C-alpha cells in the first residue's frame, strides 16, 4: 500500500465556472443599476431638435449653461431646495431626540411608541399623501409650501430615528462614564462626548432626509396645491417631452450626492479611528 | 433637572417628534377614515353619513386594479429576491475589504430622482430607442415588438426602483451569518449546495422576509411606474387613488380605497411581526 491515498485534484471545471458566476452576475447587476443613470448623464449632453430629448442628435455642453436661464426649471428647483433644507433640519432635530430617548432611556409606552415610528415607514406614500390631503381639505387649509414642508418632515422623522439609533446603539458608553467620573456634569458630557461621537450618525441621517425630500414626488403631489417642486415639474413636463436641462440638473444632483456621500464616509472612517483609539485608552 | 423628575427626561425628548407624527400621520389617517364615510360633492360640500356601503362598492368597482397591484407586487418581490440575493450574497461573503464600496455602488443610483430614473427607463425601453431600435435594425426583433405600455415595462420599472429595499436587508442578514457555521457544515461532508440550502438560506430568511415587506408595500401603492411606463391596461390601485383624489375630487371614494390599502398593509405588517417577531421589526 502506498502512503498517498488522496491525489491532489484540481476542482472540476464546473466548480471553477460557478465560482466565477457570482462575481460576473454582480458586475452585470451593477451595470444594470447604473444604466438609467448613464442614460440620464448622456442625454444631458444631447443636442435635440424640437421638444423630444429621446434620440441622440449630437454632443453639446450648451445645456449646462442654458439651464440657468430657464426660470421655469430653476424656480421649482429652488422651491425643492428650500423645502429639503427646512425639512431636513426639522426632521433631524425631532428624529435625533427620539433616537436618543429610545436608546438611552427605559420608559413606559415603548411598544406603542415604536409602532408610531415604524408604521409611517411601512405606509405606501400614496396613502401618506391621500390622508394628508384629507386632513387639509377637511380643515380647509390652503395647500402650498407650508403643507409640503410639514409632510416632508413627517415622512423623514422615522428614517432619521432609524439611522441615528443604529449609530448610537454601536457606541461605547464607557466613554461617557469616563467623562462623568472625571467630574463632567450630564450636560457637559453630552456636549463634549456624546454629541461629537454620534454626530456622524446625525449627519448621515440628515443626508438621507435631504435626499428623500428633494426626490419626493408622490406625497408632494397630494399636498402641493399650486406650488411646483422639481419632481412635480419634471413629471408635468414628461407628458410633452423633457428638455435636456432636466437631465443637467439630475446629473448635478447626482454628482453632489456622490461628493457628499464619499466625503461623509471618509470623515466617518477618520472619526471611527479616533473613537477606537480613545476607547482603547479609556479601557487601558 | 431635580432628581425626582428624572423620569421625565425621555418623554421631553420624545414629545416634539411624537406630536408631529400624531398630528400629521395618525390624525390624517383618522380624518381619511371619516372622509371615506361622507357623501357629497366638492360644490355642495361633504357630510358625514356613515355610508359604509362605499367600501364594498369600491372593492367591486376597482377589483381589476386591486388584483393587478397585488399580482405586480408579488412578481416584483420575487424578481427582486432573484436579482438581489446573489448580489447581497456576493457582497457579504466575497466582498472582502471592498464590501462598503460595493454596497455604496449598489445604492448610489438611487440618489437620482425617482422620476428621472423612471423616465430614463422609458427612454431605454422606447420602441425605437437605442436598445429595441438597434435590435430591430439587426433583425432580432420584429418591427412591431414593443415593451412600453405593457405589464412587463411596469414590472421592470418597479423591480428596478425597489431593488435596493431588497438588497440592503438581505445583506444585513447574510453579513450576520457566522462563516464558521458554513465551514462546520462542509466539514461534516455537506456539499456546497447542501451547506447553502440547509445553513445559509434558512439563516438569511429574516432578511428575505424584511426585504419582501419593504418591496411589496411600496410596490402595491406605486403609481409612477404604471403612469410613465404603462398604459390604461396596467393601471394600479395607486393610480386610481391619485386620480380620484386629485383630478376628480371624489374624496370619499378615494379615501375608502386608501383606507382599504392601509388596512391591507397593517395586516401584512402584523403577520410579519407574528412570523418573524416584532423584535426583528423594531431592532432598527
- CATH topology assignment of the domain at 74-242 in chain A: MetI-like fold
**Total helical segments of chain A:** 11
Largest interface: A-B, 85 and 82 residues
* CATH 4th-level superfamily of chain B: MetI-like
Share of helix among residues of chain B?
over 70%
Number of separate structural domains of chain B: 1
CATH topology of chain B, which one? MetI-like fold
User: How many strands of chain B?
Assistant: 2
Structural class call of chain B reads mainly alpha
Which oligomeric state applies?
heterodimer
Task: Please tell me the overall pLDDT of chain A.
Answer: 86
Q: What is the arithmetic mean of pLDDT of chain B? A: 88
Coarse shape of chain B: globular
Largest sheet of chain B: 2 strands, antiparallel
Largest sheet of chain A, in brief, is: none
CATH C-level class of the domain at 74-242 in chain A: Mainly Alpha
Number of helices of chain B: 13
Question: In percent, how much strand structure appears in the residues of chain B?
Answer: under 5%
Q: Given the C-alpha coordinates, what overall shape of chain A results?
A: globular
User: Roughly how many Å apart are the termini of chain B?
Assistant: 30 Å
Outline:
The complex is a heterodimer of chains A (284) and B (284). Chain A is mainly α.
Describe the protein's architecture and organization.
The complex is a heterodimer of chains A (284) and B (284). Chain A is mostly helical and 284 residues long. In chain A, α3 packs across α10 and α4 packs across α6. Chain A has a domain at 74-242: MetI-like fold (Orthogonal Bundle). The mean pLDDT of chain A is 86. Chain A has helices at residues 13-44, 62-66, 71-104, 110-122, 125-139, 145-169, 173-181, 186-215, 218-223, 230-237, 244-283. The relative contact order of chain A is 0.13. Chain A is globular and about 70 Å long. Chain B is an all-alpha fold and 284 residues long. Chain B has one domain: Orthogonal Bundle (MetI-like fold). Chain B contains 13 helices and two strands, in the order αββαααααααααααα. Chain B has helices at 9-36, 54-61, 63-94, 99-107, 114-125, 132-137, 151-176, 179-187, 192-221, 224-229, 237-247, 251-276, 278-282, and strands at residues 38-41, 45-48. In chain B, α9 runs antiparallel to α12 (251-276). The model of chain B has no long low-confidence stretch (mean pLDDT 88). The interface between A and B is large, with 85 and 82 residues.
